[in-house]
Structure formats: structure tokens, C-alpha cells
Amino acid sequence: MGPDLQGSLEHILKQTAGKYCVGDEVSMADIYLVPQVYTAERFKVDMSQFPTIRRLNQTLIEIDAFKATHPSRQPDTPDDLRA
């Protein structure tokens, strides 16, 4: 997810987010957000300009199901990227 797409997503999420991406219940939007943020961070995208995305991601990665399925915990994740 490049900076332009993140900027667009940040704008949308400012309008739709509650505790999660769309209100206060986990949705498919949340499931898609975590790996996108992981990839952006892996490629050194400056996430400081996307406070809503950062807040949502931080909330989501504290949920047990998200911890267990985080991209850094997948069986095919290279050793140097594993959690």
C-alpha cells in the first residue's frame, strides 16, 4: 500500500472508524488492514502521517485472533521477518 493509497484510506477511515475500521465491530476491512500496514512498515513507509490507520492497526494487533494470524507469524514468513 503506497502513500497515495494510504492517504485515501486515511481520509475514508476518518469518516467510518469507531473502535475498528467501520464502527465498533470487527469487519473484513479490519482483516485487510493489518497485513497492508505490515507490508507498508516492512518497506519503510512513514506511517506517522496516517494517525487513524496507525490507531486502528494498534487496536487490531492486540486482539488474540489477529496476533495468531499476523503476517509475521505465517509458516512461509522468512526467518528474518518472523515475530
Automatic annotation (TrEMBL):
Domain GST C-terminal: 1-79
Molecular-function GO terms, alphabetical: glutathione transferase activity; maleylacetoacetate isomerase activity
GO cellular component, one term: mitochondrion
PROSITE patterns: GST_CTER
GO biological process, one term: glutathione metabolic process
SUPFAM superfamilies listed in its UniProt record: GST C-terminal domain-like (SSF47616)
PANTHER family for this protein: MALEYLACETOACETATE ISOMERASE
The protein's name: Glutathione S-transferase zeta 1
Organism of this sequence: Sinocyclocheilus anshuiensis
